[in-house]
Each structure stands twice: as C-alpha cells, then as structure tokens.
Inverse folding.
C-alpha cells in the first residue's frame, strides 16, 4: 500500500472502534464552525469527516452537511449513528471516497478541513491537486477552512524517541480500559511526522489486546499554505491562532486559515 492517503485510511480503519471514545472531549472547535455556518450557510463539506464529529454537530443545528472519508471503518460508524438519528437524516449525508478524485455532487458555501485533515496530504502535488479540486466545488462566495497545528512549536523541539502515554479511556462497546501511547519521529527536511500509535486494551479478565497503528502527517507553514492557495486559484481571507479568532503568532497552538476564491 504505497499511496499516503490509503495508508492514512488504513490507520483509521484500524483504530475506528476507539476513535469516538478517545476524542469525546474534542469540542473546542465546534462553536467556531457553528459561527462560520451561521455566517455563510450551507451546503457544507466536511473533508475527512471520520465518524461524523463535526458533521453531526452542524447537522443538529439545521445545516445540510456532506461528510467525505476514505476510511470505511470510520464511515460505518458514522452511518450507524445516523440510522439512530431520524431527525438528522435530511441534513447529514456521508460519502466514501478520496478527496483527490471524488466527484462532488454540488458547490459548497463552506468546505471544512478540521482537526489536521490537510496534514494527510504529504506532497506538494497532492496538496495542489486537492486545493484545485476544492476550488472547483467552492461556491463563488464560499470559504475553505483549514485547522492545523502550529508547525513552529514542533520544529523547535528535539526528538527523544520516548514512548508517551497520551490518554486512557473506556471503550464503550466492551467496557474495557484502553491505554493509548505513542512514539514519533520528525523528518524536518520533508516536514513529516511519523507516529506509531499503540492501543493497549485490557479486558475484565486481565487479557491485553494490543493494536499498533502507524500514521504519517505533514506539517505546513503559514507562508507555504499561502503560496499553495495562490497556485490553485485561491487566496487567504484570514489567518488565526485559535478558535477564538486571536491573531496567529509563533506561540499560537493552531494555524487556522480561511480561504476563498482569489478574485474576491
């Protein structure tokens, strides 16, 4: 499996049963997306929608949202949730596909790449292909939203190769305790973070089940993203350092960029 996007999908298929439990406290970005939806309207496209964390939030507020993901394991969980939410069936729709080749059914007022989604595109060629495609399905007055980590923070630290305990949580279907750990290495030349995630699930009888799942993410710097946007017929509309709209700086935790068509 050589394609980076397919390798990312394989990672999420492997850890899909843990995803909701490990991210249940990831709520800080949702009011930000709500405010953008209130300003720009729908339809909305959620790239890398996973199990529907952002899609369901916006659908529950009455917006039409299309979620796209290549990981079938994640989408199966999203669709299972949707079957239990008759009130959202007219608002949420999920598609399986690769954003680089998928034929989008409409033009969108908002296109979201939340929670590091753009980091799964590892090369300039893939990034440009994605942005060019998104530009074609962005409504004339629409907005593309990138939520990324601030690369400066990571690049200023040294790798130590340590195994880290990230969090512990209860896997709801089994009731088992899960210890999530990671070890990572940063390739500063290619701007790639190679992470091995380790999920140790401990059953009631003390048996340990281990899932080892590698993932690679590509960091993007602010000026680099600006140039990519321009090459693809887009332009940065705004840059922020957090969901509260604070200005971006070298100490910001996030790099949040809003982009639109270049001629606007």
């Amino acid at each position: 499996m050589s394609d980076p996007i397919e390798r990312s999908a394989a990672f999420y298929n492997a850890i899909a049963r843990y995803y909701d439990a490990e991210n249940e406290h990831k709520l800080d970005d949702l009011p930000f997306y709500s405010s953008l939806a209130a300003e720009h309207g729908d339809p909305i496209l959620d790239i890398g929608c996973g199990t529907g964390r952002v899609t369901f939030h916006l659908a529950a507020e009455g917006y039409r949202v299309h979620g796209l993901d290549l990981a079938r394991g994640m989408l199966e969980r999203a669709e299972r949730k949707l079957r239990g939410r008759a009130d959202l069936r007219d608002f949420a729709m999920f598609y399986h596909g690769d954003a680089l080749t998928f034929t989008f059914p409409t033009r969108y007022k908002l296109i979201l790449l939340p929670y590091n989604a753009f980091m799964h595109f590892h090369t300039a060629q893939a990034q440009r292909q994605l942005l060019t495609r998104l530009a074609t399905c962005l409504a004339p007055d629409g907005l593309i939203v990138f939520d990324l980590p601030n690369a400066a923070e990571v690049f200023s630290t040294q790798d130590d190769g340590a195994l880290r305990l990230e969090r512990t949580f209860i896997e709801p279907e089994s009731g088992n305790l899960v210890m999530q750990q990671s070890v990572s290495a940063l390739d500063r030349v290619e701007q790639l973070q190679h992470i091995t995630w380790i999920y140790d699930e401990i059953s009631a009888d003390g048996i340990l089940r281990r899932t080892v799942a590698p993932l690679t993410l590509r960091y993007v710097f602010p000026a680099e993203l600006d140039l990519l946007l321009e090459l693809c017929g887009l332009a940065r509309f705004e840059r922020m350092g957090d969901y509260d709209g604070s200005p971006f700086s070298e100490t910001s935790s996030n790099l949040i960029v809003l982009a639109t068509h270049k001629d606007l």
